[in-house]
Amino acid sequence: MQLTRTVKLVSAALLALGAHAAQANKADNSLNIAFDAAPATLDAYKESDRPGLALARMVFSGLLQKNQDTGEFGPAIATGYKFVDDTTIELPIRRDVKFHDGSVLTIDDVLYTLNLVSSEGFKARFQNQVAWIAKAEKVGDDTVRITMKTPYPLALEMLSENLPIYPRKYYEANQSDMGAKPIGTGPYRLAESQPGSRYVYERFDDYFGNKPAVKKLVVRVLPDANTQYAELLSGGLDWIWRVPPDVAKRMEKTPSVTVKSSSIMRISYISLNPRADDGKSPLAKQEVRQAINYAIDREAIRKALVGGASKVINAACNPAQFGCAADVQTYKFDPARAKQLLAEAGYPNGITLDLVISAPPRSILDAAAAQMAQAGIKLNLVEQQYGTAMTNWREGKIALLSSNWGSYGIADAALSTSNFFRGGPDDQARNPEVIKYLEAADTSVDRELRAKNYAAAQKIVAEQAYWVPLWNHSLNAVQAKDLNFSVDGDEFPRFYKATWN
Amino acid sequence: MIAFLFRRLVVSALLVVFVSLISFSLVFASGNPAARLAGEGSAADAARLSQQHGFGDPILVQYGRWLTGVVRGDFGDSLYFSRPVAELLGQHFPATAKLGLAAMLFALLLAIPLGVLAGLKKGSLADRATMMLSACAQAMPPFCLAFLLIIVFSVRNQWLPASGFDTWKHYVMPVVALGLFAMPAMLRLMKSEMETVLTTDYIRTARAMGLGGASVVLKYALRNALRPLVSLAAAQMGTLLAGSVVIETVFAINGAGLLAWTSILRGDFPTMQALILIFALIYIALTLLADLINGWLDPRVRAAT
Q: Which of A49, A197, A226 lies at the smallest CB-CB distance from B254?
């Protein structure tokens, strides 16, 4: 707590002194970027964190490309796609795609990559990215046929950027090289790197798609936020992200930089465990869970502490996701109604619960706790590391858990509602009806049917109040004034879209 | 001397085993690392990682497995970077060693002359100013001083780079911030030793025999006063290693301190365990070395231990 206060004071001092104009590198057309963590690896199939995945996406391309504004799937390495049936998709491959080592991409590279990464022995970091593929085979000279294990509605999502194509020869020779010296077909190639601290990317002149406007990306790992602010204000950086709302607000007043706030897929929530304490917890009662929902003034907290482009959400998903229903039961802040519900449930004198925070900032939960106290719900806030909290939640040891979820940046409720309520380890509600609806939605390619089933499931989740849906996140990036760039809704910065004003 | 050396080595070896056991148990006390390792992955991803890395095995089995590897020089693979920990250590320690040695040199260059001055001119303005500097340096946490330096020298004046570790300019602020952190204890010891030595019979005798002030101070007093500083400098070197975690994070120096910070944040157990062990080994080795030097310089030390 003391440390946080000191850091805030220091940031305030840094910002107050940041009168110097940032010297953006428009002149040599290079973009200086900072991440707060070193990428574990640049091998897209072995990485699990955003910085590494974002960097990998500059180097690799997938078979398709999703338009982030319209949600449509367009060509990339494949010129298009055609569904043969619910479990078969065919994609013709371009002949003019080159890897960064100069070799030409062949259909063999595509087959090799898809079959390898979907095999069990490969141990891809995210299984939902690859596990749906039964096999990939050649049809004709240039067409790949992918057979799915079962109908998989997210196939196109995965084929767009989530399944980069690797050069067979290079990857076969030594897989571990891909983590440090990646070879792909993407818009940028890794020109030099000091692993863990500095990565330099250069525009790939033989890239098959639209060439990026920025020629060089210099990515540095600066773990301390204040160092990032100092570098940005002294002109050493052109772009930083994940800037906390209070700092972003102050940065808005600095003339040399611009704050860009993007609405992203990540959502915050409080999960309520009806089975806590072997079902003896007050949370076992629907009235108590509803009372908790009524006792939090989400809009007030969002406005004061989250800000930016965030919006309150009502269902267990992000409204930007396909299948996220709008017409579910909502709970407007009403402490009197919360008290009444508690009394109806047999707790006229209120209740006391432990709430585990696995993703800061704590200030949000402090505010929520103060509001809930008005309704007679006393919260003991317990901070746990993400890994510990998730393990404890999955083992049923936690009554209330506050965390956030990015859905892998994919705009489909299969990766939000279903992750939490389809009977998997994260599902402590285990409502059979909800599970049935979600199973139907996740295993169909019929969009109408899927939407209907997700809506039915989300309706029950809201009525039963298994969750307190909070808001979707707003991602703040601070950048040089003359840089024209913003992070896409899936939380990926695509630097090849950046231009100078 | 041989018995003294043997005793010291046995104690050090026991300490190393003890530290490794404690560090291993503590690291595992914080829960199953698979969920953290899965990052944004689902519960299924975490379960698969847990099985892949054997996190479900009893801690003693895991410790045994780890210790057998360590004896062979194999610290396992980093869970986060998926590379051998030994390779990571080799990559990150040079920067920390350079930073630590430069900071120690800076600290000694301040502590010795200022300590001598304060000891010689007890109660003077110089003495009070020196003690004030020591108190300020002691009271200021290294990360605060680091940010203060960044504000003045990078943001306001853009004289020095705020991060990185390439040119001499990059060294200035981290070395000053870390060096000032280690300096006060050595300065005060130097001062008090100087004061004590100057009141001893042999110094009085030397003066009575007509030896000049500077000669007495440099040839006799300083030499004797420096002896306890050897032990303290060794201990402070360990403090500098700990301080490097903060300083390397602030200045984005890709050393062992930053690696330690990253592994803590990422729940990278094998890297953390190796770093704790290596930091402890260095600390123990430096203390041992200081004891040996003191033992060699002063036979009374050998007899007493």
A: A197
Decide if B30 and A14 are in contact by the 8 Å CB cutoff.
Answer: no
Q: Which residue of B has its CA nearest to A229?
A: B155
* β-bridge pairing A311-312 and A239-241: unpaired
B126 has pLDDT over 90: no
A391 vs B contacts (CB less than 8 Å): 31-32, 34-35, 46
Looking at residue B190, its amino acid is M
Which residues, in sequence order, are bridge partners of residue A467? A271
Angle at CA of residue B176, ends B167 and A6, nearest 5°: 110
- Please name which of A495, A489, A18, A496 lies closest in space to residue A253, comparing C-alpha atoms: A18
Chain B contact for A491 (CB, 8 A cutoff) = no
Q: How far apart are the first and last CA of chain B?
A: 11
Higher model confidence: residue A420 or residue B126? A420
Half-sphere exposure of A215 (CA within 13 A, CB side): 6
Q: What is the pLDDT of residue A476?
A: 94
Residue A379, amino acid? L
pLDDT bin (cut points 50, 70, 90) of residue B289 is: confident
State which residue of chain B sits closest to A390, comparing Cα positions: B35
Confidence of residue B57 (pLDDT cuts 50, 70, 90): confident
Q: Which of A7, A234, A240, A426 to mutate to test the interface with B (most CBs of B within 10 A)?
A: A234
Element (H, E) at A31: strand A30-35
Q: Minimal Cα–Cα distance from B247 to chain A, Å?
A: 10
How many CA within 13 A on the CB side of residue A98? 12
Tell me the mean pLDDT in the region B112-123: 87
Tell if the CB–CB gap between B32 and A387 is shorter than 8 Å: yes
A92 forms beta bridges with A143
Q: Where are the alpha helices (DSSP H) in chain B?
A: 2-29, 34-37, 43-53, 59-71, 85-120, 125-139, 142-150, 168-198, 201-208, 213-215, 222-250, 256-266, 269-297, 299-304
pLDDT digits (tens, 9 = 90+) for A355-370: 999 887 889 999 999 9
Exposed, middle or buried by CB within 10 Å (0-12, 13-18, 19+), for B3? exposed
Residue B30 is encoded by which pair of tokens?
Answer: 């914080």
Q: Place A405 in a pLDDT band, splitting at 50, 70 and 90.
A: very high
Tell me: cis bond preceding A361? Omega within 30 of 0 counts.
yes
For B139-169, the pLDDT digits (tens) are 988 889 999 999 899 888 888 988 888 889 9
* CA–CA separation, A435 and A177 (whole Å): 42
Which residues 431-490 on chain A approach chain B with CB closer than 8 angstroms? none
Higher-scoring residue by pLDDT: A71, A17: A71
Give CA–CA dist A190/A247, Å, rounded.
32
* Torsion sign across C-alpha atoms A98, A104, A110, A116: negative
Lowest mean pLDDT among A187-191, A474-478, B282-286: B282-286
> Three-class SS string for A284-343?
HCHHHHHHHHHCCCHHHHHHHHHCCCCEECCCCCCCCCECCCCCCCCCCCCHHHHHHHHH
The encoded tokens of residue A132 equal 């749906």
Cα separation values, A380 from A248, A356, A365, Å: 30, 8, 10
Tokens linked to A101: 């080592």
Of the partner residues B31, B155, B250, the one whose CB lies closest to the CB of residue A387: B31
Express each pLDDT in B75-103 by its tens digit: 888 888 878 899 999 999 999 999 999 99
H or E stretch covering A472 = strand A467-480
Q: Touching check for A106 and chain B: CB below 8 Å?
A: no
The structure tokens 């007899």 sit at B303
